Amino acid sequence: MEFVVKTFKELTTSELYDILQLRSEVFVVEQDCVYQDIDRKDAIALHVIGIKDSKIIAYTRLFDGNQYFDTPSIGRVVVAKSERKFGYGHDLIKASIEAVYNHYENRKITISAQVYLKKFYKSHGFEPIGEEYLEDGIPHVKMIMN
């Protein structure tokens, strides 16, 4: 799998369609969560796209400090269900952290993690901060990597 990082304006129409389809497949259908995925924040985000065999199978969006949290952040972390068994989630997070380091000055990163993935994010240096909370009906916890 290869990773590319693009601004919103650099995304092709096909790439944007495939990203939105992947996010919908996982967050809306698989996780059975009705929420407004298209939130107008994509336009200010950097997009980390994982491509395998010319198909988008993994994705995150990044924000600089004070665009989402007070530090840079990683969100909308998604890997196609059929591709998770290969450990691409770990590759995606590593690529996303590297993209934060390459594009933003602050190296502290904040995420809003689904609670069931806390161990996964801890393996990449994130630590939980504060109490768990519901976000779109799903338990989350704020995590920070210094």
Task: Supply the key terms.
single chain; alpha+beta; four-stranded antiparallel sheet; globular
Describe this structure in words.
The protein has 146 residues and is α+β, with helices and mostly antiparallel strands. It has one domain (2-106): Gcn5-related N-acetyltransferase (GNAT) (Aminopeptidase). It is built from 3 helices and 7 strands, in the order βαβββαβαββ. It has helices at 13-30, 88-103, 118-122, and strands at residues 2-7, 46-52, 55-63, 73-79, 109-114, 127-135, 138-145. The strands form 2 sheets. It has a 4-stranded antiparallel beta sheet, sandwiched between helices. Strands 5-7-6 form a 3-stranded antiparallel beta sheet. Strand 6 and strand 7 form a beta hairpin. The chain is globular and about 40 Å long. The two termini are 27 Å apart. The model has no long low-confidence stretch (mean pLDDT 95).
Question: How do the helices and strands line up, and which of them pair or pack?
Answer:
Layout: E1 2-7, H1 13-30, E2 46-52, E3 55-63, E4 73-79, H2 88-103, E5 109-114, H3 118-122, E6 127-135, E7 138-145
Antiparallel strand pairs: 1-2, 2-3, 3-4, 5-7, 6-7
Number of domains: 1
**Level-1 CATH class name:** Alpha Beta
| CATH architectural label | 3-Layer(aba) Sandwich
- Structural class by SSE content: alpha+beta
> End-to-end distance, in Å?
27 Å
Stretches where pLDDT is under 50 for at least 5 consecutive residues are none
Shape: globular
Helix content: 25-40%
Largest sheet: 4 strands, antiparallel
- Helix count? 3
CATH topology: Aminopeptidase
Name of the CATH superfamily: Gcn5-related N-acetyltransferase (GNAT)
Number of strands: 7
Mean pLDDT: 95
* Rg: 14 Å
Main sheet strand line-up = 1-2-3-4
Element order, helices and strands? EHEEEHEHEE
Report strand %: 35-45%
